[in-house]
Amino acid sequence: MRLILTINGSSRPNHNNGKLLRAIGRRYSSYRFDHLDDLSKLPLYLADQENKRHNETVSDFKQRIMKAEAVIISTPEYIHGLPAILKNALEWTTQTGEFNNKRVLAMTYSPHPPRGHYSMTSLKNVLQALGSNVIGAIDLYQNQLTVDSANNLVSPNGLDLIDLAIKELM
User: Fold this and answer.
1) What tens digit of pLDDT does each residue of 1-60 get?
2) Which of these, 9, 132, 4, 127, lies nearest to 68 by C-alpha position?
3) pLDDT tens profile 91-111
4) In the chain, at which end, N or C, are there fewer CB atoms within 10 A of the end residue's CB?
5) Pairing mode of beta strands 153-154, 3-8
6) Sheet containing 103-110: order of strands
7) Domain residues for 7?
8) For position 143, which CATH number holds?
9) What is the DSSP secondary-structure string of 51-104?
């Protein structure tokens, strides 16, 4: 079964972005999902000290990226950019290339438009610098798409955009 790694870019593991990614995993059960919900366990990336700070948590993070056929990253926007916790995680792959040619679906999940615009721009720039194959970038809004109490995606306008993105991703 094909493996998709989801990465929750929020500093709150069980909040909206994490719930969204788990609901996506539930909706597309024909794929196997590995959910990376809590990036806070990764140490601070310092380029000059990368070898000294590299530990089992970093190794596990990198191995999970490498094992996945594709990656979905969902992030909120913090002060017009990426959450520091997500940027730090991505920086751990700069020297070793885990994202090089990796198929990635970039998503923002914010309360309402226009929030998410700046973080999406930043995320796409970072993924491009890492050599990722970004197959899609979707701005999602909580006032248009929700996760119900049974962990299902609910949208008054349908889920065609997400369905198409997952199809393209795989």
Assistant:
1) 799 999 999 998 888 999 999 999 999 999 999 999 999 999 999 988 877 777 999 999
2) 4
3) 999 999 999 999 999 999 999
4) N
5) unpaired
6) 32-36, 3-8, 70-75, 103-110, 133-141
7) 3-169
8) 3.40.50.360
9) HHH--HHHHHHHHHHHH-SEEEEEE--BTTB--HHHHHHHHTTTTT-TTTT-EE
